[in-house]
Amino acid sequence: MGRLLLIVTALLFLCVFLVLPLLVVFAQALAKGFEVYYLAILAPMAWAAVKLTLLVAAIAVPLNLIFGVAAAWAIAKFNFRGKSALITLIDLPFAVSPVIAGMIFILVFGTHGWFGGYLRAHHIRVVFAVPGIVLATMFVTFPFIARELIPVMQSQGKDDEETALSLGATGWQTFWRVTLPNIRWGLLYGVLLCNARAMGEFGAVSVVSGHIRGVTNTMPLHVEILYNEYNYTAAFAVASLLALLALLTLAGKSILEWRQPELRHAVRRPRDRTRRAYS
Amino acid sequence: MKVNSSAAAALMGRKTRGVLPGFGLTLGYTMVYLSLLVLIPISAVFIRSSSGGWAHFWEVVTAPRVLASLRLSFGASLVAASINVVFGLIVSWVLVRYTFPFKRFIDGMVDLPFALPTAVAGIALTALYAPNGWLGAWLKPLGIEVAFTPLGIVVALTFIGMPFVVRTLQPVLEELDREVEQAAASLGASPLQAFCRVIFPALWPALLTGFALAFARAIGEYGSVIFIAGNMPMRSEIAPLLIVAKLEQYDYAGATAIAVVMLVLSFAIMFGINALQNWAASRHGER
Fold this sequence. Notes:
The complex is a heterodimer. Chain A has 14 helices and no strands. Chain A has a single domain, classed as MetI-like (MetI-like fold, Orthogonal Bundle), CATH 1.10.3720. Chain A starts with a helix and ends with a helix. Chain A is globular and about 65 Å long. Chain A is 77% helix and 0% strand. Helices cover 80% and strands 0% of the residues of chain B. Chain B has helices spanning 2-12, 16-19, 23-51, 54-61, 64-97, 103-109, 112-115, 118-129, 136-139, 150-175, 178-186, 191-220, 223-229, 239-248, 252-286. Chain B is mostly helical. At the A-B interface, helix 1, helix 3, helix 4, helix 5 and helix 7 of A face helix 1, helix 3, helix 5, helix 6 and helix 7 of B.
């Protein structure tokens, strides 16, 4: 009896807080029929937003991927002083409000910012332009891939690499042929989460974008503009694309977790995972 | 393999640390990228806010509208994180201990708030709880207004924070020994007694960590809140929105002052969580 009550309570809570918000997006998007939906998605401004979102993710994710691999290599394969401080610093962007994440780039690159005069003299726009959006997105998604890779690499130790080196492989050969195949699922997992956040980021991007239609509008910003114009159907139509992206991300995440069960709780329990892997 | 490699290392007469290449390169790259993208920009907030002097900083931070927004942000985050602790415990308990149809699917869905862009969450929750929405129409006759009130902010922050609590609790519950509970039951403990005396003591560090993670995320949250909040100054205006408002008026001293207060508190929470996890891990190891 108590068991049934608990299951019903949990399912009701999840239904109200997860299922209904997801359903309402698609219901509102299709409220006026498929034709209106297609027209809303195919509108030129919506397409410009889709392209900008893809561009931003295509820059931010690979850069954070390179950083993530480098950071994980240094942290997982070597011992040095200040390692735990470095891990804490890598997590720092998680503790910063998205709005502040956008604001810091205005303080650095804005008209009255540190480099404002220089950029203006050379006619370079960073803030209220695409570079600012990319920077803010990179900041917000900075820890994602490193956080996934550090525990994965730590649990694998360095025996495989040392063997390859002792057999005469160069450092790069060892990385490409030994390390990379070992960490590929963890890498993909991090990329998936990083990409979802990069494409969906709203607060940080909103502060630095300047909201110029067709130029500095990413998909989430376009949703906001349409919504504030009371064009609800179009807003939810674009939002439904982002909701689909979220569902695909969750599906990909579940598949990777099924392939590699250790990935499941890696994010928040790096220490424990390492311990378990060695025991 | 271990023997081979260490033997090889010994034969080549190298120190263990020197065997793998790339330490200088990767650590150097990490430090440069971290400094350029994160540390230096964040320091701009602290430098900018101090340029106006301490008196000005204090004046901005203690203005009634700023105090009201900070009180709202922290209050609503506190309420939302508490709701999440209660329901997150139930949800993770049910997901770990019981079997029911579509359990794997439901478990995967718990991460939706991580994956769904916050702006989408914001307009979806607003549509649900608006007076003519699926849930709003139902609550209205009861006299409960959610959308465009502080209650709406709590709903949005609960949505955002839920996976933090569930995902922190799940692994701890999975490792919890069922035999201890059964032993307690066989010694005559009621289920409630068993929970309070046996399960809760093992669980509370994870509960506190989940609470702190959800709380920290909620304080800074912007996208999901602004659509449902109504954004009335003094009543339903959260601190991140006030920062945006001040930025739009080019009031950088004001915006950075609020940002400093939020950053200091967020960093304090983060270090608290880290310390808690280290302490829990060492306690866990001793058992």
